[in-house]
Amino acid sequence: MRCELSQRFYFESAHTLRRKVEAEGSRRIHGHTYHAEVFLRGEVNPDTGMLVDLAEVRAAIAQVRDQLDHHFLDEVPGLGPATLENLCHFIYRQLSTTVPLLSAVTVERPASGDKCRYGG
Questions:
Q1: What is the pTM of this model?
Q2: Percent of the chain, pLDDT > 90?
């Protein structure tokens, strides 16, 4: 049986951003509550009935979340400018080494209606 499984988490962080539109407010330090979702896809193990043990996925997510939650994103090594696109890619890269069935990551800011998906 093939299926897709996901796990959600959130983090709150501050950053700055250089842009042409809405430039003044973006250049000042400001923060958001981000909601992320990690997707895994594959074959269910017939012996366990699980695609993967979600406790293991949550442990891997906790390590990534610790790098982002209540941090100044401009200073997170390997992130680059704190865009939704870069956050998705950063989370995906961090998890891809410990979550082998990882297929996609989404990051959204519900308050502003923005969302990005990276991967399948």
A1: 0.91
A2: 82
